[in-house]
Amino acid sequence: MKKLLLTILALTAIMFVSCDQKKSSENNPFMSEYANEYGIPPFDKITYADYEPAVDAGIEQQNAEIDSIIKNTAEPNFENTILALDNSGRILDKVSRVFNALSSSDNTPEMQKLSEELLPKLTAQSDGMYMNAGLFDKVKAVYDNADKLGLDPIQKRLTEKYYKEFVRNGALLTDAQKDSLKAINKQLGDYKLKFGNNVMHDMDNCVFFIEKEEDLKGLPQGIIDNAAKLAADKGKKGQWAFTATASTRLAVLTYADSRDLRRKMYETYTTTASHGDEWDNSENIRNILLLRQQKANLLGFNTYADYAVDPYMAKTPKAAEDLLMSLFRPAIKKVDEEVADMKAYAAAHGDTAQFEACDYYYYAEKVKKDKFNFSEDDVRPYFALDSVVKNGIFFAANKLYGLTFEEMPDAPKYHPEVKVYDVKDAEGKHLAVFMTDYLPRPVKAQGHPSHHLQCGQHDASLRRHSLAAHLG
Hints:
mainly alpha; 4-stranded antiparallel β-sheet; two-stranded antiparallel sheet; 18 helices; 6 strands; globular
C-alpha cells in the first residue's frame, strides 16, 4: 500500500511538472510566432525567465534538425543540406537575436547574469554544429559538386560561405584538436564576457567629484546640470560628479578651461578597467591574447591577425596594415601641423605648460574659432539628432538605394527611447525593421546605437543563421 501511494504521488508530481512546462512553453514569447505584422519581438512580454528555456528548446530543435540532415539517405544537394541547415534552429535564432541585441543595449545586472549562463551553452552549440563530422561531410559534398548539381550563383555563394565557415570553425581538425578548440572557445567566451562587464561597470561607477564651481568654467550648462544631478544621486549634493561616458568626456575635454579637470577626465577614461583588483582587465586581456594565439595556431595560422583578416579582402595582416598606414602617415603629418598651431595659440594666450594629450580637443576648438571663425556651438543647431537621421542618413539611403524609412510609433520596443522604422524598397515593399537607440545609458555599451532586425516569416529562404557570427 505504501509503495502504491508513493507511485501515485510520483506520477502526480510528473503530471504537474509536465503541465508547468507546457504552460511555460505556451507563455514564452520565443516559442511561438510573434503576433504582429513584421514579426517584431514583443519586448513588453519577454521576461528574463523566458531566455534560458527558449535557448534550451532551440538547441534541442536545431540538434534534431541537424540529425535529420545527417540521416537523410538521399544524395546531398542544396535543398536537403544547405537550405535545410540555413533554416534550422528557428527558436534559437529568435532568442539569440534578442539576447545579443539587448545584452549590448540593455545590459542590466539580470542580463549580465543571463549572459554568464547562456553564452557557454550557445558557444557549445556553435562548436557542436561546426565540428560535427557527419554534417560537414554533407556540406562538403554539396560544395564539391556545386557545378554538377547545377547551383545558381546565389546557391553557390551560400554553399561556399557555409563550407568556409565550417573549416574556419574547426571542421577539418582531428577529434583531439576539436576538443582543444572547444575548450579554448569556452575560455575565450568567459574572458570576453568578463572584459565587457568590467568596462561597463567601471565606466559607470568610476566617478570623480568637483567641489569648486570655478573649476567648471567653460563647460556647457547642460553638462554642469547633469553633473550636479549625478553628485546628488551619489549623496554629495552641492558638488558635481563626472564619469567618462562619451558625451560627458568629450564635452569636458573640449570645453573645460581647467586643465586639472581635463586631465582628470582623460586619466579616468584611459585607465578604465585597468586599476584596482575586482574590475581590472589586465589579466583578462593577457588571457584573451594567449588563447587567440593558441586558436590561430590550432587552425593553421601563424598569428590571430592572420586568422582574423583571412575572410576579408585584405587576406593578410600586411595588406591590411599597408592600407591603414597609407592613411595613417598623412594623417599624422596633418595632426603634427595642427598641434603646432595649438601650441602656438596656447603660448600666445599665456599657457606655456607642456602640451598634454588632455589639451588636444580643448585647443583644437580654440584654434578652429581663432583661425577659421568656426565653433562647434555655431553648427550644433543644424545637427540635431532627428535632423541628422532623417535629413542626412535616411535621405542619403533614399537617394542611393531608393530606401524609405517609415516610423512605427506603436511597434514593440525594449526601451522608450528606441524608435522603430519600417524599411521599404523603391517599390514600397517591406524589407526590414530598423531600430535606433542613440542615447547613452548606464546599462548600454558604447558604440551600439541601432539594430537591424529582418523580421517576419516570409523571408525564411536563404535566411542566414550563424551563432559563430555572434560568438567568435
